[in-house]
């Protein structure tokens, strides 16, 4: 059992806040979860699934092919490794021999070249010869030990099934060869001395992607299409394949077995879903069977993603299955067991994981390879060899712990110029590492940053103030780090008021929302240079604000932000257009709107100013303010002033009324007028000059007298009424009696 202790040298903390602390005062950048730690770079450092850092296996580059793709790898008892290459053009299938020191020629020694696209599988036979399976439309070749002319030991075109792909190989104790084929899915057994291949079993799947041969002769096979793991007793006459487990994924890319006989399988992709092009394979006359390539193979070749990542399963000796791990963003290409531990090579981020086989969901990220895909494992000198694609290399992972190992964090952006305070570290082994910090004002630390500075025993830092920071931990054997956090204080910057709008005739309701037809939407204008449909959105509250129509009110609305993330309070000021002094309407406002009675201001043109302050998060001496002034707006609560309405009766058939009227408004233009005769319907009234757009409008009009619908005492007496409106719907009415 591991005891966790708190570092007392670099600052002991009872608990560190994840990510960022609150807005005010000193903030804390904390890195402790796996998803935070894995964003950094590692050199001999392993990251556990709980986020703990520790010295991991030493990782070194053994061989660089100069090609893009390494598909397979095998090693012999002398420590030499064999690398199967491929590409996108015919004739790129190569096998290179690499010695334990990574030499064997300037680029390794070539021992085989084929006409096919890729060497998909490699195995070393008991006599030291190398077996190579090529695809597509390939063969299985035997390459003599030490090189020489390769001979064909299996040609799928000579079989009845004629599979298009060869995916994996296994060699039995007696030298027999087992071949996994696809399109269609078949497993063949080739006799040790050569001869006709025997169909061991067929399935209804698309491909047999992976093989595993146990010491007792049991052959395990993983399929693509249905994602099934099969078991077959090769030493039993008339044996049939037994489906041990049907995974939730469509493709079983890799199989491995531990010393106790537990089998591990990697499942990739989603069943029933593929975006890959079909591969036509013609069977009988007039019959076409369509196959698709395995998703993992296409993903490696195109450096693309497989939907839903991967899962790793454990099939116990008694046959009971268990899901050990789900990797959301990784495709497992290879599995192997080394010194009792299960390792998984993955893409498309080039990660190697050590998977906990006893506690589901736990793993250790032991290596970040300088390539996109980890494709295959082989046993190397004092460790594992990992072959990669994009680019084609071979890396060595040592069995022992790296004598020195370095983890470098991701770059942190403080979102502004900041002073860096103490480092806080929680570690289970406080004496096994050293911590360093550097800072800068550009995002990339490659140029213009400070040098690495060692963190003092009390967590003190001496790096310059700046916007960006990064830390690294240098480990010795036994060092364990759980959490690293840096305190920082942003330089206070003034808040910004982004936009101010004023809406006369509207009040924001504080109770039950009014009916829709009684509301006003107070929005913001588009940003300068934006398209007509864009919305000015410097903060999240930029959607239209619903206000109630109210002629006696004015609503001011604004947007504001603070780059420090400080809480803000606001004050609203006003002044008349042409005046010098601002007068306070309301201060200490926490919302981003304010409604007030228009009666507070005499009719006229005004400007509103909103002042934002970050005083809630700072002392009065340190608080800063920002302000913005609105466009001019009009307060108009007084109706127009009418002159005398003159009206005379014009005799005739029918009789008519001729009337004149002049109306004035002190603040806003008169927008329209309407008349009514004898309480009849209101009718639109056009001013002299037709366009109603001035503070003074004259009306000179003649209207017919409507026929009386009921008897009246004096049929020659009529009432003419006129209503006049200004731009803010203030209305005045006058009448005249005509005889």
Secondary structure blueprint with pairings:
Elements: E1 27-31, H1 34-37, E2 41-43, E3 45-48, E4 53-55, E5 57-64, E6 69-75, E7 81-86, E8 93-98, E9 109-114, E10 118-124, E11 130-135, E12 140-143, E13 151-154, E14 165-171, E15 177-182, E16 186-190, E17 198-202, E18 207-213, E19 218-224, E20 228-233, E21 242-246, E22 251-257, E23 263-268, E24 278-282, E25 288-292, H2 295-302, E26 310-315, E27 321-327, E28 331-338, E29 341-347, E30 351-355, E31 363-368, E32 373-380, E33 383-389, E34 393-401, E35 405-408, E36 412-426, E37 433-440, E38 453-454, E39 466-475, E40 480-481, E41 483-490, E42 496-507, E43 519-522, E44 545-561, E45 569-576, E46 583-589, E47 593-597, E48 604-613, E49 625-629, E50 633-635, E51 641-642, E52 646-650, E53 656-664, E54 670-677, E55 683-685, E56 696-704, E57 718-726, E58 731-738
Antiparallel strand pairs: 1-41, 2-35, 3-4, 3-31, 4-40, 5-34, 6-7, 7-8, 8-9, 10-11, 11-12, 12-13, 14-15, 15-16, 16-17, 18-19, 19-20, 20-21, 22-23, 23-26, 24-25, 26-27, 28-29, 29-30, 30-31, 32-33, 33-34, 35-39, 36-39, 36-41, 37-38, 37-39, 42-44, 43-44, 44-47, 45-46, 45-48, 48-49, 48-50, 51-53, ...
Polypeptide structure, described:
This protein is mainly β and 739 residues long. It has 4 domains: 27-42 and 413-490; 59-398, 6 Propeller (Neuraminidase); 496-635, Immunoglobulin-like, CATH 2.60.40; 641-738, Immunoglobulins (Immunoglobulin-like), CATH 2.60.40. The termini are far apart. It is built from 2 helices and 58 strands. The radius of gyration is 41 Å and the shape is elongated. Strands 1, 2, 35, 36, 37, 38, 39 and 41 form an 8-stranded antiparallel beta sheet that branches. It has a 7-stranded antiparallel beta sheet with strand order 28-29-30-31-3-4-40, with no helix packed on it. Strand 6 and strand 7 form a beta hairpin.
């Amino acid at each position: 059992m591991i005891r966790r202790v708190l570092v007392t040298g670099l600052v002991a903390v009872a608990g560190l806040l994840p990510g960022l602390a609150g807005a005010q005062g000193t903030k804390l950048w904390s890195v402790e979860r796996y998803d935070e730690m894995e964003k950094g770079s590692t050199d001999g450092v392993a990251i556990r699934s709980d986020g703990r850092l520790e010295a991991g296996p030493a990782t070194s580059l053994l061989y660089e092919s100069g090609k893009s793709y390494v598909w397979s790898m095998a090693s012999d008892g002398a420590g030499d490794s064999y690398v199967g290459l491929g590409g996108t053009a015919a004739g790129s299938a190569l096998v290179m021999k690499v010695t334990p020191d990574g030499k064997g020629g300037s680029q390794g020694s070539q021992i085989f070249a084929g006409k096919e696209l890729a060497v998909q599988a490699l195995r070393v036979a008991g006599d030291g010869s190398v077996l190579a399976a090529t695809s597509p439309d390939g063969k299985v070749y035997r390459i003599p030990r030490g090189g020489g002319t390769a001979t064909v030991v299996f040609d799928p075109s000579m079989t009845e099934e004629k599979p298009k792909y060869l995916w994996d190989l296994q060699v039995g104790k007696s030298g027999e060869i087992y071949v996994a084929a696809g399109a269609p899915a078949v497993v063949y057994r080739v006799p040790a001395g050569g001869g006709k291949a025997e169909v061991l079993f067929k399935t209804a799947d698309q491909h047999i992607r992976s093989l595993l041969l146990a010491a007792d002769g049991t052959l395990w096979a993983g399929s693509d299409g249905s994602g099934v793991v099969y078991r077959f007793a090769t030493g039993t006459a008339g044996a049939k394949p037994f489906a041990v487990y049907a995974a939730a994924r469509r493709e079983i890319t890799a199989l491995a077995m531990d010393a106790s006989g537990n089998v591990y399988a990697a499942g990739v992709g989603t069943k029933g879903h593929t975006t890959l092009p079909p591969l036509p394979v013609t069977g009988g006359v007039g019959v076409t069977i369509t196959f698709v390539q395995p998703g993992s193979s296409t993903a490696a070749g195109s450096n693309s993603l497989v939907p839903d990542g991967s899962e790793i399963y454990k099939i116990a000796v008694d046959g009971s299955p268990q899901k050990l791990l789900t990797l959301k963003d990784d495709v497992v290409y290879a599995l192997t067991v080394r010194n009792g531990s299960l390792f998984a090579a993955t893409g498309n981020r080039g990660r190697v994981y050590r998977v906990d086989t006893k506690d589901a969901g736990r793993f250790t990220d032991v290596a970040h390879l300088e390539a996109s895909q980890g494709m295959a494992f082989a046993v190397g000198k004092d460790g594992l060899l990992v072959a990669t694609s994009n680019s084609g290399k071979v890396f060595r992972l040592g069995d022992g712990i790296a004598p020195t190992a370095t983890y470098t964090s991701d770059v942190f952006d403080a979102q502004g110029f900041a002073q860096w305070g103490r480092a806080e570290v929680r570690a289970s082994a406080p004496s096994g590492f050293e911590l360093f910090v550097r800072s800068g004002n550009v995002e990339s630390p490659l140029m213009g940053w400070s040098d690495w500075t060692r963190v003092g025993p009390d967590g003190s830092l001496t790096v310059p103030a700046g916007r960006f920071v990064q830390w690294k931990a240098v480990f010795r054997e036994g060092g364990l780090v759980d959490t690293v956090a840096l305190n920082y204080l942003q330089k206070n910057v003034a808040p910004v008021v982004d936009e101010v709008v004023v809406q006369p005739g509207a009040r924001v309701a504080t109770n039950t929302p009014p009916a829709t037809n009684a509301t006003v939407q107070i929005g913001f204008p588009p940003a300068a240079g934006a398209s007509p449909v864009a919305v000015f959105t410097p903060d999240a509250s930029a959607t239209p604000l619903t206000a109630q129509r109210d002629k006696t009110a004015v609503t001011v609305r604004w947007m504001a932000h603070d780059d420090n993330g400080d809480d803000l309070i606001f004050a609203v000021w006003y002044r008349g257009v042409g005046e010098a002094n601002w007068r306070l309407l309301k201060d200490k406002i926490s919302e981003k709107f304010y409604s007030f009675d228009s009666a507070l201001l005499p009719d006229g043109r005004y400007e509103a100013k909103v002042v934002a302050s970050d005083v809630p998060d700072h002392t009065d001496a340190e608080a800063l303010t920002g302000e913005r002034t609105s466009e001019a707006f009009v307060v108009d609560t007084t109706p127009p002033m009418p002159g005398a309405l003159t009206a005379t009766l014009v005799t005739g058939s029918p009789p008519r009324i001729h009337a004149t009227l002049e109306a004035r408004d002190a603040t806003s233009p008169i927008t329209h007028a309407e008349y009514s005769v004898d309480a009849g319907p209101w009718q639109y009234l056009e001013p002299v000059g037709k366009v109603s757009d001035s503070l003074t409008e004259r009306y000179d009009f003649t209207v017919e007298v409507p026929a009386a619908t009921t008897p009246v005492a004096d049929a020659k007496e009529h009432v003419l009424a006129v209503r006049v409106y200004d731009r803010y719907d203030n209305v005045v009415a006058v009448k005249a009696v005509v005889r």
